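Dear Dr. H.,

I hope your travels went smoothly. While you were away I took the liberty of generating a structure for the chain from your last submission, since the lab meeting agenda had it listed for discussion. I wanted you to have the full record in hand beforehand rather than looking at slides cold. The sequence, exactly as received, is reproduced here:
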Amino acid sequence: MPETRFTKDHEWVRRDGAIFTVGITNHAQAALGDLVFIELPEPGRSVEAGEACAVVESVKAASDVFAPMSGTIAAVNGAIIEDPALVNRAAESEGWFFQLTPASPEAFEDLLDATAYRVLLETP
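The corresponding predicted structure, in token form, is as follows:
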């Protein structure tokens, strides 16, 4: 089973071999509300950790999605462009945003594990 880590900006990252899949957490999609538009990065684009590389717009607000690790965008999920609500329905599975080939795979270990992410959510 692939391992999942999280960022303080509410992205999730799932490692499956050399590919790292990125999306927004269920907490993030719930806070945003009904998503109506998503802009994804171009495959082949190089990104730096913490760089805004995608945009989500909801009926409430627009928000950036940040690269959790430095690397190259390997693929994007076109299904969420056609149906942004897929992220609302399945944020941490079929509603993924992009896949990343990281510059330093070990950076994954610096992200929050599930326990640390739960603590982040519970901290006022």
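Two observations you may find useful: The first strand starts at residue 3 and ends at 6. The CA atoms of residues 38 and 81 lie 6 Å apart.

With kind regards,
E. W.
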